[in-house]
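Thread title: Can someone regenerate the structure for this chain?

I was given the following input by a collaborator and told the matching structure tokens would be attached. They weren't. Posting the sequence so someone can regenerate them.
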Amino acid sequence: MVEVDIFKQLKEFPLRVKVEIEQGEFLAIKGSSGSGKTTFLRVLAGLEEAKGSIKVEGKEWIKLSPQKRSIGFLFQDYALFPNMKVLQQLLFVKKDKKLALRLLELVGLSSYLDRYPSQLSGGQQQRVALARALMKQPKVLLLDEPFSAVDAKMRTQLHKIIKELHQEFKTTTLMVSHDIGEIFLLGDKILHLEQGEVKTILTKKELLDSKHKYLAKVVEKREGEVVVALFGNLYLVKTSKKVELGEMVEVEIDKLKL
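Best answer:
Regenerated them for you:
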């Protein structure tokens, strides 16, 4: 169990987060830009200070240094060492070659051990960073918009890899994302953070049963209806407006039809 009850005064508003996360749960965090999502992850990692309490399996973390917290953190910019080869990146974290080779196999990079970051694509660098984040087999894995810099095809592959690693290592995972599709695909629960305040914490079923509105992309036009892509699925939506292919339209969850 991860129990968080923190307060931090930000420039424009206070960040107040109180949440309990079950062991092995995947919590997806959504919210507008500047709502405090990344700061929340950085406080959990010990990279920023806050008042309150962070308990992981009953142990208080709030005053622990980042090095003493069992955390894996995947940054948006990967933060790989440019002068280290792929295998070295992982062994720098922990001298366990067997585990390093296992992780690189899981992320599909077994044949890239001797390459430097500059010799890898963006997606490959992301997978190295993910494997490195799991080298300490952390109790908590933090993902800060991990797919924002890769194309749609690679993003789909990374979704699958993240899901498999999460299930295999049973790590409690928190992921910040603006993409409602991947939030719905990966998250067991969805936390909505706005201006530093937790608005809702919903399960997938509660999300689908709610009247929340989201922007969805029009992929097909029909008579009086359009087909939109949302949550990784296609849905039929009635419309009286003229819309174009590729246009983003606002839809209510409870009005979607398969």
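The chain is about 25% helix and 30% strand.
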